[in-house]
Amino acid sequence: MISEKMAKMASGGSVIRAIFEEGKRLSAIYGKENVFDFSIGNPSFPPPGSVKDAIIDIITNEDPMYVHGYPANSGYPEVRRAIADSLNRRFGTAYTEGNIMMTVGAAGGLSCTMVTLLNPGDEVICITPYFFEYNNYVTTPGGKVVTVPASAENGFMPDVDAIAAAVTPKTKAVILNSPNNPTGVIYPADLLRKYSDMLLEKGREYGTVIYTISDEPYRELAYDGAEVPWMPGCVANCIVCYSWSKSLSLPGERIGYVVVPSDIADGQLIFDAEVVANRMLGFVNAPSLMELVVARCVDEPTNIAGYDANRKLLYDGLTALGFEGAYPAGAFYLWIKTTIEESAFVEKAKSYNLLLVPGSNFGTPGYVRLAYCVSPDMIERSMTAFARLAADCGLGK
Ligand code: PLP
């Protein structure tokens, strides 16, 4: 018999992946053009041309023993330096390659960070609604997820008092994700500073250090010129997990990095342990070719305009039908109220071939998440189905 924990997990699986697979099944029956799959956060634009150019140039002109050999477990020093330099230009920091470890996406960075920080029984606070994979990253080294609801009245911003009330002597870390999946909210600098002061105060009270893990795969996805504050500039003891999965449309290439600033508590020890975790978890190192590619594309802009057009199209269409939700400031998700009981809403939607992810899959029932990293054409065609759903839910009368 395999591990009891894994047997349980294998029978559960990922809800989002299951909906995505259901989309493929429905497409085979009804035709791809009649299925409206808003389930998964797979970017809808190809990577920019500079990524392809870099790949071709590197595999044509660089030494294959360098390109395909093992880099250091932390990544090629020159790649890490290029990333540190880019962050320094943008955020006025003074990082070196000694602060950057290349990772297998943000997921790899989060997993290494949890293994680095957590003793069994340590608590990690997650703000609901949240990306449910955090449960796996936290529980694998024996940690425990403690949830704190974001304030719905306050547009799903973290509630600093509620987080303070959830901190215990066992709290090791808080995971923040801004721009947020699933709400699209961006946390402002003044809120982050207040949050940081609170954590420092709690740490003094309990004689502990409470780290903040800033999960930032959507950092570049901010609309209308909204500023995404550099989290370690506002929050003490902050470790950043970044990836190019969304910003450069490279989710399958599994490439990202962790920033461990030098001035956080036990900074050098944490960095060294992150590198060990990269090996221990079997990643060994981030993919070598992709490390070299992203170093050349480090200042490449993200296709904000494309996602922004989708954001407007979907939001305007749904609100005109009577659906309620906040206009997202970042990422590529729309978070709307279900108006009727959540599972009935999701099932009704499915009967019109609309595939939406239930809010309970983010720890917040009564909502659905729509990923608008899809074709604008699909958004337009889906509106007839949404109109039927709205009518079934008594909206727009
Ligand atoms: N964190 C959040 C909030 C995400 O939405 C995702 C992916 O969708 C990840 C982390 C994992 O990203 P990556 O592909 O870089 O591992």
Task: Characterize the structure shown.
The termini are far apart. The chain is globular and about 60 Å long. It is α/β, with parallel strands linked by helices. 46% of the residues are buried. The protein has 15 helices and 12 strands. Helix 5 runs parallel beside helix 12. The mean pLDDT is 96. A 7-stranded mixed β-sheet has the order 2-8-7-6-5-3-4, with helices on both faces. Helix content is 44%, strand content 13%. The chain binds pyridoxal-5'-phosphate.
Uncertain residue segments = none
- Helix-strand pattern: HHEHHHEHEHEHEHEHEEHHHEHEEEH
Number of helices: 15
Structural class: alpha/beta
Helix percentage range: 40-55%
What's the Cα radius of gyration?
21 Å
Shape summary:
globular
Oligomerization status of the protein chains: single chain
Bound molecules: pyridoxal-5'-phosphate
Q: What value does the average pLDDT take?
A: 96
What amount of the residues lies in strands?
5-15%
Strand element count:
12
Protein name: Pyridoxal phosphate-dependent aminotransferase
GO molecular function, one term: transaminase activity
Organism: Candidatus Scatomorpha intestinavium
Keywords: Aminotransferase, Transferase
